[in-house]
Amino acid sequence: MTSRSASRRSGANHRQSRARHLPGIRRSLTLLGITACAVSVSGCAQIVASSVGDAFGKDDFEAARASELPYASLKFLHGNNTALVVLATLEDEGRIARFESQDRGIIELRDGVLSATSGFTRDIADRHEQSTTGRALARPAWLMADDSRYRVSVSALSPYPRRLERADAASSGSQHQDDVPVMQVHEADAHLRCEAAAPHALPLAELSLQHCTETLAWDDGHTTTNEIWRDATRVWAADMTAWPDGPRFGWEIAKAW
C-alpha cells in the first residue's frame, strides 16, 4: 500500500495538540503500587539531568541515579543518545505509561511497547495492532505466543519543508522556509518469533526473559525487524524501528511501574 500523506498544522500547533493529548488528571499511583513524578508532565524534567534530543553521541544515563530516584524509570535510547527518563503519568490501569526527559521529549508505552512520541524530529503519532482479519487482538501482540501473526499500523509525523511567502513579499519578493509536520500512515504484516527464556541484563537487574523478533513486511515493500525481551506479563526491553526509514528507539526498564 502507498503511504497516505496529509499536511498537518504548524509545528507549534502540533506540540499543543500533543500536550492536550497528555492527561490532565493523574491517577492515584500509590494504589497501583508504583511511584511516578506526580507533578505537571513538564515538571518531571527538572528531576533528571537527561535529554533525548538530536545532539550527537550523548550518554546521560547513570544507573546509580536511576537507583536513587523514587520514580519508575527507563534507560532510553534514540539515535546516538542515551538518557534516563522518568514516569510522568499512567492511564488505563497502568497499561499506558508516559515518560519524560529533561528536554521534554515524551515517550508513551502502551502495554510496554512504544506507541507514541512527542518532541523529536520525527514522531510516532500512534502505533496499533490488530488481527490479520482486522479485529481487535485478545491480548497485546508482543505477549502473544511464538509464531503469531498480526497487522501493524503506524501514523508517523515527519517535518516537510515548505516555502512560505512573507507578508511583504508583494513588495520585496522575499520568502522564507518553514517545516510543516506531515502525517504518513504505514501498515505491515507482522510475524513474531520467540526463543526460550534466558538471563538478560537490565540496568538494575538481571532477569530470565524471552528474546522475540518482530518482522514487519510493510505494504510499500520494505522489511524491518524489532526486538523485544519479555516475560509472561510485560516487555522489559525493546529495540524498534518505528517505520521504514524511520527513527530507531530503544529502551530498558530501570525501575518498573
Description:
This protein has 257 residues and is mostly beta strands. The protein has 3 helices and 14 strands. Strands 1, 2, 3, 4, 5, 6, 7, 8, 9, 10, 11, 12, 13 and 14 form a 14-stranded antiparallel sheet that branches. Strand 12 and strand 13 form a beta hairpin. The chain is globular and about 45 Å long. The chain starts with a strand and ends with a strand. The model is unreliable at 1-34 and 38-57 (pLDDT under 50).
Give me the Rg, rounded.
19 Å
Low-confidence stretches: 1-34, 38-57
Percentage of residues in strands: over 45%
Structural class: mainly beta
Mean pLDDT: 78
Number of strands: 14
Order of helices and strands: EHHEEEEEEEHEEEEEE
What is the end-to-end distance?
38 Å
Number of helices: 3
Which geometry do the CA atoms define?
A: globular
Helical fraction: under 10%
| Largest sheet, strands/sense/barrel | 14 strands, antiparallel
Write out key terms for the chains shown.
single chain; 257 residues; mainly beta; 14-stranded antiparallel beta sheet; 3 helices; disordered N terminus
Question: How do you describe this structure in short?
Answer:
This protein has 257 residues and is mainly beta.
Helices and strands, with pairings:
Blueprint: E1 4-7, H1 11-21, H2 63-68, E2 73-78, E3 81-91, E4 96-100, E5 106-110, E6 113-118, E7 123-130, E8 148-165, H3 169-172, E9 175-194, E10 198-201, E11 206-218, E12 223-230, E13 235-241, E14 248-255
Antiparallel strand pairs: 1-9, 2-3, 2-14, 3-4, 4-5, 5-6, 7-8, 8-9, 9-11, 10-11, 11-12, 12-13, 13-14
